[in-house]
Design brief:
Elements (H helix, E strand, L loop, with lengths): L13 H4 L8 E13 L10 E11 L9 H14 L4 H13 L8 E14 L6 E15 L3 E15 L1 H18 L7 H8 L11 E12 L8 H12 L9 H13 L4 H12 L7 E8 L8 E6 L2
Antiparallel strand pairs: 1-2, 2-3, 3-4, 4-5, 5-6, 6-7, 7-8
Helix pairs in contact: 2-3, 6-8
């Protein structure tokens, strides 16, 4: 019987020893959803968290049966377990993937999916609360095109429909006209009426909405500009959802919604214009989704850098 604690034989390596039965190059081969600890080197202090990592290389040797999967995992395990991650670290990882697959692969990529937990201040009060933003870091290392670095993130905001707001205003006007005549106009009576449910008896519909943004960063970028880019989008939209609030914050939020009526097209154009002015942004792709409260379906808009 073979003693598993003292094996004298060489274990078979089918991927290395056998040729592919059907040859051909493959763009990407590797592993995805690897669970790793994550400490980010970003433009803001972040809580340590968990990441799902994708690590892949091209299979350029058309006859090779496969790549060395374990080398990808072990390289990621060593890096993510021992140091903070930024774009320089991810770039080095892709170099390592290629070096450990010489003769097999000329290109490599790595993607890191996680969430950035940011402390966000309330609009008016002294309150603050935590907001979790889905993020993805990507580095693509290609022999022909060089290094490409990407940051993707999602912002959640409120959108109030301009059409619904106009229809509500018309109903309020009609209600006012039926309640008051020129002879009965009285400031106190009008103020009391405006403050009652009978006065403002129609309201526009709002919905929770999301913007998913992917930006290409300069090749020289090292740290992860999470807070900077999230601030650009939230300050542009002005109606980002809130964490901890008092009534004064809720009132300020209602005012912001009223001053920023948005179709999905409006939101997409605002973000597009804002991203176009950012020096860090080389290219971008964005998609906004308004999760309708009027309809059972969503309203969407998408835009690319020009």
């Amino acid at each position: 019987m073979l003693d598993s604690t003292n094996q004298s034989c060489t274990l078979p390596d089918i991927a290395a020893e056998e040729k592919a039965k059907v040859g051909g190059q493959l763009q990407w081969v590797g592993m995805s959803d690897m669970e790793m600890p994550l400490r980010l080197n970003a433009d803001v202090n972040l809580q340590d968290t968990i990441a799902q990592v994708r690590a892949e290389v091209s299979l350029d040797d058309a006859e090779s049966r496969g790549i060395h999967m374990s080398r990808l995992y072990l390289a990621c395990d060593e890096v993510f377990s021992q140091q903070a991650v930024d774009f320089r670290v991810l770039n080095s990882l892709t170099d390592h993937f290629i070096q450990t697959h010489l003769g097999l692969s000329e290109n490599a990529l790595i993607e890191v999916d996680s969430q950035a937990l940011l402390r966000r201040k309330a609009l008016v009060s002294e309150y603050a609360g935590w907001r979790a933003y889905p993020i993805k870091l990507s580095v693509v290392n290609c022999q022909k095109t060089g290094i490409s670095k990407y940051l993707s993130f999602q912002v959640t905001y409120s959108s109030t429909c301009p059409c619904s707001a106009a229809l509500a205003r018309q109903l309020i006007q009609e209600n006012f006209s039926s309640q008051f005549s020129e002879q009965s106009l009285n400031m106190k009576a009008i103020l009391d009426w405006l403050g009652s449910e009978q006065g403002i008896h129609a309201t526009p519909h709002s919905q929770r909405s999301s913007a998913v943004v992917k930006i290409k960063l300069p090749e020289t970028q090292v740290s992860v500009p999470i807070e900077q880019m999230i601030d650009v989008v939230e300050n542009t939209l002005k109606t980002a959802v809130q964490a901890a609030v008092k009534r004064a914050d809720e009132q300020a939020f209602a005012l912001r919604n009223g001053n920023n009526l948005m179709f999905c097209e409006d939101a997409a154009r605002r973000i597009k214009q804002a991203l176009s002015t950012q020096n860090l942004v080389q290219q971008f792709h964005l998609r906004v989704t308004h999760h309708e409260s009027l309809h059972p379906h969503d309203a969407t808009a998408e835009a690319y850098s020009e």
